[in-house]
Backbone:
């Protein structure tokens, strides 16, 4: 088995100058009715009882006296051979198992077994050389651990804590409140290599990160053009404030909390493209069981039953709707237009209806466009 750092260090001092004997003193005898095996290695004492139950003791945090108390608390029988060394750190215990061995010969000592001669003996070293080398070995072990940790922190998949936060900062992905290392470890590469700058990519990012469904509108698609737009259609003239190129606008159906959505839109929008204030659509009717249904809209209506005699009645009909001519007394039509208001606010307006405030009513308002021809 592999030798400990202390055992490897003790091989190097010249035997003609240094006495490598630990000058061990017997301090404890450890036994159990079901039998036990113990081992001391790298600052930890491991005791196996009955071949299955394992107890671990961190020697750095214990004195020999407190170690004895911990062993007794776990049901082991401990004989205190002498109280002379009770105040010493438990790190002074000789590594290995069983009785103190001769100079380390490259073979890891077998664990102490109470059924082997002197197998229940636990020793502490009193040698000054061992005290110096033991301290140095702990620093070497700590340095080796730090080197391994440094290599792990160089890769996102194994980085932890503040080092993982540093990776997040490098890629512009700060840790969220309550976010664990495994969660952040998965989110950093997803955010770093996410598709961006187009509306569909922004919508996907919002859905992934918040679970909310938001549509990204592009007002340039609503610009009126004579060769394509209908004269009475929805297209609008450019104003470069609400309608025009280089603009996007997030839209939701129903009110949502925009506090976590708008930063995502801002982070993923194309350079040079401005984000308009979000738009909220309320599309359903009143859902409360009242005698009448609330409707909030500006309505434009005109209707006519017209006999067409090769004449386009432009005062009634839209240009593109005058499609049937030369059929006197046959073709009759009724045109009805309904246009609704869109509320561009995040909350209901402060209006009353039947003495009930909008904020207290379980209702939402929508728009409709109907056209009938007969």
Residues:
């Amino acid at each position: 088995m592999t030798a400990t750092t202390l055992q490897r260090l003790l091989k190097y001092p010249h035997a003609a100058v240094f006495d490598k004997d630990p000058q061990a003193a017997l301090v404890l005898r450890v036994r159990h009715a079901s039998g036990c095996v113990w081992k001391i290695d790298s600052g930890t004492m491991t005791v196996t009882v009955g071949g299955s139950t394992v107890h671990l003791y961190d020697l750095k945090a214990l004195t020999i006296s407190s170690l004895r108390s911990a062993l007794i608390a776990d049901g082991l029988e401990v004989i205190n051979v002498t109280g002379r060394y009770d105040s010493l750190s438990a790190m002074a215990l000789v590594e290995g198992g069983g009785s103190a061995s001769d100079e380390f010969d490259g073979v890891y000592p077998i664990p102490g077994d109470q059924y082997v001669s002197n197998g229940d003996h636990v020793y502490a070293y009193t040698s000054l050389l061992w005290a110096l080398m033991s301290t140095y070995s702990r620093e070497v072990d700590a340095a080796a651990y730090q080197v391994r940790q440094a290599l792990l922190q160089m890769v996102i998949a194994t980085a932890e804590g503040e080092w993982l936060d540093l990776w997040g900062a490098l890629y512009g992905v700060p840790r969220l409140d309550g976010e664990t290392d495994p969660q952040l470890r998965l989110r950093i590469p997803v955010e770093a290599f996410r598709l961006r700058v187009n509306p569909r990519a922004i919508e996907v990012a919002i859905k992934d990160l918040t679970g909310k469904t938001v549509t990204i509108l592009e007002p340039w698609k609503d610009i009126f053009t004579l060769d394509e737009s209908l004269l009475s259609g929805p297209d609008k003239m450019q104003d470069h404030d609400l309608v025009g190129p280089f603009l996007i606008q997030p839209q939701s159906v129903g009110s949502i909390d925009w506090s976590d959505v708008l930063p995502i839109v801002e982070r993923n929008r194309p350079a040079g493209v401005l984000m308009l204030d979000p738009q909220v659509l309320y599309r359903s009717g009143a859902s409360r069981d009242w005698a009448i249904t609330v409707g909030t809209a500006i309505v434009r209506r005109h209707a006519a039953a017209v006999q067409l005699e090769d004449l386009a009645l432009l005062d009634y009909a839209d240009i593109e709707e005058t499609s049937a001519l030369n059929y006197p007394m046959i073709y009759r039509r009724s045109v009805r237009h309904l246009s609704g208001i869109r509320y561009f606010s995040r909350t209901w307006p402060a209006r009353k209806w039947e003495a009930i405030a909008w904020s207290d009513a379980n209702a939402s308002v929508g728009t409709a466009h109907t056209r009938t021809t007969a």
